[in-house]
Amino acid sequence: MENNTQQHQALHSYCLYPETRFETQADQETVILTLRAHPITQIYWVINAVIFFVLLVVVNFLFSSFLTVNQILFIDVFGIVFILSYLWFNFLNWFFNVGIITNQRIVDVGFTMIIYKEVTATHLEKVEDITSESGGYIPSLFDYGNVFVQTAGTQDRIEFENIFHPAQVVKIINGLLP
Predict the structure, then answer these.
(1) From CA 152, how far away is CA 124, in angstroms rounded?
(2) Among the listed residues 100, 151, 102, 101, the one whose alpha carbon sits nearest the alpha carbon of residue 125
(3) Of 8, 83, 7, 11, which Cα lies nearest the Cα of 40?
(4) Can you state the angle between helices 69-96 and 43-63, rounded to 10 degrees?
(5) By C-alpha distance, which of 95, 96, 63 is closest to 79?
(6) Mean pLDDT, residues 115-131
(7) Residue 92: count of CB within 10 angstroms of its CB
(8) CA distance 3 to 67
(9) Which helix H or strand E contains 27, and what residues bound it?
């Protein structure tokens, strides 16, 4: 942790010393790490969008003799809007669900359906246990997994799911603990 140079990996899902600020950041607080789900864990919705697009093309060929040009155009516009909306909402869900580790706190920002935001934060002094979990062929191959931060008291644990370099994240948090 002596090297404080900015580093980004895996489409900015793992950013070490990013030049960023967040809503509740204190003046003396420095962001050490920002975390998002590994991009490989998001591939399913990209594949689904491709399948939807292929189905739309197939529907165009199958029903071109039964439907008018205006009806086909309506189906195409509706289908493309549906596919692009699906991609957009899934991208926003990935992009805005972020974990932030600072020199003072651990913050988990979660968005549900774009309109509901839940922010869970704990000061480093309240951290009691940190667990890294990664299992299976694909997670081992792409080095992603889960990190669970247990805190003192009745507060729920903070969970960072499907993040890049989970063991390294635990090492960074352990290095920040008082």
Answers:
(1) 10
(2) 151
(3) 11
(4) 180
(5) 63
(6) 91
(7) 13
(8) 64
(9) none
Give yes or no for a contact between 35 and 164, defined as CB atoms under 8 angstroms apart: yes
Mean pLDDT of 144-151: 94
d(CA 124, CA 104): 6
Q: Which two tokens stand for residue 173?
A: 């948090």
For domain 7-37+97-176, give the CATH number.
Answer: 2.30.29
- Fill in the amino acid letter for 150: Q
Give 141's DSSP letter.
H
- Residue 64: the pLDDT is 86
pLDDT tens sequence across 62-120: 988 888 999 999 999 999 999 999 999 999 999 999 999 999 999 999 988 778 988 88
Cβ–Cβ under 8 Å, residues 17 and 7: yes
Residues 2-24: pLDDT tens digits?
A: 567 778 777 889 999 998 999 88
Three-state SS annotation for 40-84: HHHHHHHHHHHHHHHHHHHHHHHHCCCCCHHHHHHHHHHHHHHHH
To which residue do tokens 């997670």 refer? 139
* Mean confidence (pLDDT) of the chain: 91
| 45: confidence class by pLDDT, cuts 50, 70, 90 | very high
**Domain limits of the chain?**
7-37+97-176, 43-92
